[in-house]
Amino acid sequence: MENILEIKNLRKNFKDFSLKDVSFFLPRGFIMGFIGPNGAGKSTTIKLIMNLLKKDSGEIKVFGLDNIKNEIEIKDRIGFVFDENLFYEELTALEIKKIIKPLYKRWDEDSFLKYIKDFNLPLNKKIKDFSKGMKMKLSLSVALSHNAEMLIMDEPTSGLDPIVRSELLDILSYIIQDENKGVLFSTHITSDLEKIADYITFINNGEILFSVEKDIIMDNYGMVKGDKEILREDIKKEFVGIKYSSFGFEGLVKDKKVIKNALKEKIIIEKPSLDDIMLYYLRREIHA
């Protein structure tokens, strides 16, 4: 299986933050959810992929090409959607198109006009008069109009209403039917990723905690509930994190089969959400 994105031992040091040997890969034909709290390193990683920041060490390959030596070719084949509008707001969508079109070798005028129509966007209205959802749709229209093989999306659904978010997820699901494409989707809204992502990469404090197929996470991880007295020290070691209350405990385990065999009928095991998994990784022990 060919990887559309490969990152190996990526490091970037700032005064008060560092990326520490970040490594993960995304195969063609799949959507990767990139999750983590604010300040974890998601946007920094994306900026390094796009060569908007200079890395200290490590390797980044996109389409099998070095992202610095082949920057122009790579960016011609990438669609990029930020959480903020990057277009000059005094211009119209039509004027934006005229500026951007010459930058891409494979610009498809028919695709651009189709997305504008499908998204119900006005061509001659100034960007400053667009809603946040309309600005995101314009960014997506531009990103999809030059036959991009890879989409990189940095918090594109932040602040959008559920209807617009749902439309975006439908578009991504349609795009990825072309198994030659790939999507790196950074977001805080993990419920969106539960619907469409194939892989989940979790970064915290500049380090990758895991990067694995979403189905493996959802099949193996478990939310465990029971009485506190059954939590022997050897049992606690199986937990990612535990929340205590006057009624007992609730905790996250990586392998629910192991804990089920150890505690038998004394516990209740439920399926966790990605939000649950993030919470318990970030706050290992919680007292209610």
From TrEMBL:
<dbReference type="InterPro" id="IPR027417">
    <property type="entry name" value="P-loop_NTPase"/>
</dbReference>
<dbReference type="InterPro" id="IPR017871">
    <property type="entry name" value="ABC_transporter-like_CS"/>
</dbReference>
<keyword id="KW-0067">ATP-binding</keyword>
<dbReference type="InterPro" id="IPR003593">
    <property type="entry name" value="AAA+_ATPase"/>
</dbReference>
<dbReference type="InterPro" id="IPR003439">
    <property type="entry name" value="ABC_transporter-like_ATP-bd"/>
</dbReference>
<feature type="domain" description="ABC transporter">
    <location>
        <begin position="5"/>
        <end position="230"/>
    </location>
</feature>
<keyword id="KW-0813">Transport</keyword>
<dbReference type="GO" id="GO:0005524">
    <property type="term" value="F:ATP binding"/>
</dbReference>
<dbReference type="Pfam" id="PF00005">
    <property type="entry name" value="ABC_tran"/>
</dbReference>
<dbReference type="InterPro" id="IPR051782">
    <property type="entry name" value="ABC_Transporter_VariousFunc"/>
</dbReference>
<protein>
    <submittedName>
        <fullName>ABC-2 type transport system ATP-binding protein</fullName>
    </submittedName>
</protein>
<dbReference type="GO" id="GO:0016887">
    <property type="term" value="F:ATP hydrolysis activity"/>
</dbReference>
<keyword id="KW-0547">Nucleotide-binding</keyword>
